[in-house]
Amino acid sequence: MPAAVAALFLVLCALVQPAGAQQPPQAAVQALATAGFGAKAALLEQIADSGEPWARPVLQALLDGDLKMRKADGQVVLTRPAADGFALYDPIDGQELGQAGRFDLKRLAINNALRGQLRTLIATLSLGDPDPARRRAAVRALYDEI
After folding, report:
1. From CA 113, how far away is CA 39, in angstroms rounded?
2. Which of 6, 16, 45, 46 has its CA 20 to 30 A from that of 36?
3. Is 97 a member of any domain?
């Protein structure tokens, strides 16, 4: 009987995810809108480690200040300058989401530590790029971080 209880306990422990369990990478992008700087560092690592083709462009957009939160619904969007403010795009699939004025958006805050982390992650992801020029630029960027 004690062995059965122990086995049941182990099965239940395996089914329960820890509170800090990783979320899908798409959810990690959305979580950047409300996370503090420490949590953002972990989210950036998760996005970079996802292996998704959109990971590097999303990280670059955050570094460039082009990843913002739409105030109306809290959605994280990729922005590009447009005639009447900004054109909005889904950061994952690139789907056009309309336009918004600059006061309708909130820039996602990053500090200097996150900027350094972003540069390193982007350069690391770029090392696997099929374009030799991008790989050379990635090596230079990593060298500059040393």
Report:
1. 12
2. 16
3. yes
The tokens of 81 are what? 């300058």
Mean pLDDT for 22-34 is 89
133 within some domain: no
**Predicted TM-score (pTM) of this structure:** 0.78
CA–CA separation, 118 and 109 (whole Å) = 13
Count of domains for the chain: 1
The answer to whether residue 134 is domain-embedded is no
**In this structure, are strands 105-107 and 76-82 parallel, antiparallel, or unpaired?**
unpaired
For residues 77, 83, 84 and 89, what is the CA-based torsion angle, rounded to 10 degrees? -10
Residue 93, domain extent: 24-110
Res 4 pLDDT > 50: no
Stronger pLDDT, 124 or 22, i.e. the higher one: 124
Q: Residue 78 falls within a domain, yes or no?
A: yes
- Is 50 buried (19+), middle (13-18) or exposed (0-12) by CB count in 10 A? middle
Tell me the residue ranges of DSSP E strands in 1-45: none
